[in-house]
Amino acid sequence: MHEMAVCESLLSAMEEAAQAQNFSRVTRVRLAIGRFAGIEVEALRFGFDVVMRGSLAEGAELVVLEEDGSAWCFDCCETVALSHRLASCPKCGGERLVPNGGTDMKIKDLEVL
């Protein structure tokens, strides 16, 4: 379950931000996660609760904003919105698609004290 490692990286980023911006507590974390990021949201929520115990983010609310996926279609030469990686192009039915959006995860903002 790589979501635990993702949560550990998230905690490290929050600790670095806390030192740089002089805050001691995180009460809410908003993450934007693309549909194609390969993150299982429920596993991430579980990992978040476990990894944040005893840290500056213990008890923090985790808000996940799911971002749509998109891909470049080599058949019709357009960027199209996709609901999942294995979908065909909604414009031409082509299957030669390369994801170009919704592939990452980023911290949108932190609510801190």
TrEMBL record:
Return the InterPro entries for the record. Answer: HypA/HybF
Q: Name one GO molecular function term.
A: nickel cation binding
Give binding positions for Ni(2+): H2
Pfam families recorded? HypA (PF01155)
Residues recorded as binding Zn(2+), renumbered to this chain, are C73, C76, C89, C92
One GO biological process term = protein maturation
Q: Which UniProt keywords apply?
A: Metal-binding, Nickel, Zinc
**Member of which family?**
Belongs to the HypA/HybF family.
* Protein role: Involved in the maturation of [NiFe] hydrogenases. Required for nickel insertion into the metal center of the hydrogenase.
Q: What is this protein called?
A: Hydrogenase maturation factor HypA
Q: Which organism is it from?
A: Xanthobacter autotrophicus
Taxonomy of origin reads: Bacteria, Pseudomonadati, Pseudomonadota, Alphaproteobacteria, Hyphomicrobiales
